[in-house]
Amino acid sequence: MDEMLMMGREVLAEQPFSVLIGAELLKFSVGSAELKVPVKRELQQQHGFLHGGVVSYAADNALTYVGGSVLGPAVVTAEFKINYVRPALGDCIVARAEAVYVGKSQAVCRCEVFAVAGEKESLCAVAQGTITKIGRSESRSEG
Amino acid sequence: MDEMLMMGREVLAEQPFSVLIGAELLKFSVGSAELKVPVKRELQQQHGFLHGGVVSYAADNALTYVGGSVLGPAVVTAEFKINYVRPALGDCIVARAEAVYVGKSQAVCRCEVFAVAGEKESLCAVAQGTITKIGRSESRSEG
Amino acid sequence: MDEMLMMGREVLAEQPFSVLIGAELLKFSVGSAELKVPVKRELQQQHGFLHGGVVSYAADNALTYVGGSVLGPAVVTAEFKINYVRPALGDCIVARAEAVYVGKSQAVCRCEVFAVAGEKESLCAVAQGTITKIGRSESRSEG
Amino acid sequence: MDEMLMMGREVLAEQPFSVLIGAELLKFSVGSAELKVPVKRELQQQHGFLHGGVVSYAADNALTYVGGSVLGPAVVTAEFKINYVRPALGDCIVARAEAVYVGKSQAVCRCEVFAVAGEKESLCAVAQGTITKIGRSESRSEG
What we know:
Four copies of one chain form a homotetramer. Chain A contains three helices and six strands. Chain A is α+β, with helices and mostly antiparallel strands. Chain A has a single domain, classed as Roll (Thiol Ester Dehydrase, Chain A). Chains in contact: A-B, A-C, A-D, B-C, B-D, C-D. At the A-B interface, helix 2, helix 3 and strand 3 of A face helix 2, helix 3 and strand 3 of B.
């Protein structure tokens, strides 16, 4: 495993909420991040789908990771927007994020979340947001 | 406790993810919903703040509730946007949502999330989104 | 007319696009701004409603104004989100913006756009966005 | 010129606001649309950049077009979000939109807006939004 992915996984292991959810960092390189969350009973809503809050967690965290990959580790998601397009069912979801613009202190990133069932992937959400370096301005909710 | 709040709490109790997080529905009436999430260790990120994913869960779920209060119970959050403005610290967060537009099949709703420490409340996030009736179109991620 | 409104109107008069559209600043004070755009033929789309681009211009510019009212004049709208809820018909639209969070270098603001027909106002769009001081970081699209 | 592009250009010619702005539909096929707006004096703000409202008009309209390409002509942009990343300077801007999810009555689409100066293109904004069929639910601001 390369150093960057290893470092990213260490950070994830220090996030109690990510541990609670069972998130796993699959890929992590400059401008790209991939985060996996298992579909399990305690992450569902009342109809058996993964709760929207879990999908938005995955998008938010993948966005923060990819922002950190281009801006350095001390970053937060300042804001993001998510469109849910399909219920999340299957074995797991995978959130794939990429940086589309990198400035000195901010990056604009996008994320697609797929539901994975066996070999099949279905898009279940699309997100876009701003990742900001911390330290240079007011603090914001991290993670 | 009134019937609507009781019904809302029953739905929340049927969402395993909301139970895992420890969410509590404080208020629920037509056009208004208030959801509380305790600040506890397993919901934090690496710096001791509540994880952004928990804040977005609270906003998303409060938006779904308030949408359901005006459109009927079978609704989903189709999309939303959130701005994180301060790290979430303290005893708990409270997400307060209101409907600003109600159509036949969709409602546009807003939510403010406050961090509560003793008597003091600080705004930590602001959200806006679309809640849609289900059954009338394609299904989307519920919860 | 107070000084702040006068100053705001001078800035608007220096924006050729705002002049082209016929926008008028109705109110401008710390944390609040109100911008009016007339409903006229050349601002419409193919069905006789005000073009969505005009509604989003009004929201965007009112957001920039209210951000400037709390952060100082050198600001840009870094990002915003808008929900269109009704077609814009009538005599004019009025965009009313308020600051909901003010930091050192950024403000999170909201805007409601109303269609005005005689005495009657109907909500036609709701927006939320981030306004950022310029000079401190990379440049962004101003206006 | 193919039939679809021709039809798209006819619709654009029926939008007085698009005519006022001088927008031109460059490409239009199923799942893809490209709209051009010239950089000219009357579309600028006070610092000589293209006004943000023009950039958001281009994004919004390109999103509506691409939504229409997959859902049929009677569509509106229900909501969208835009991140401005660079001031728009140069000869023109080009908004390129694609559909990322197509449902029965809604499509989620993305758009990138580039500033074009000679041979050089620079990303100046990124957008994401929901395009909805009209007729099936309440009306919304079209265009």
